[in-house]
Design goal:
Elements: H1 2-13, H2 30-58
Length: 59
């Protein structure tokens, strides 16, 4: 993930970045990426809530 951010900053500065193969990869536009991120964050929140509930039951 850090390399993605670093590469993005380099592209914004106009600096060269190494080529990455996109074969078999779907490139998302900003709206799709935001929806995907929110979906993954919701799954993470649900998991954290279950962990919290389980730890509360054991106390």
């Amino acid at each position: 993930m850090n390399t993605l951010v670093i590469d993005k900053l380099r592209r914004l500065k106009g600096e060269p970045v190494k080529q990455i193969s996109t074969k078999g990869i779907t490139i998302l536009d900003d709206d799709q990426a935001e929806i995907a991120l929110n979906f993954e964050l919701a799954k993470l929140d649900a998991f954290q809530q279950r962990v919290k509930e389980m730890s509360d039951c054991n106390d």
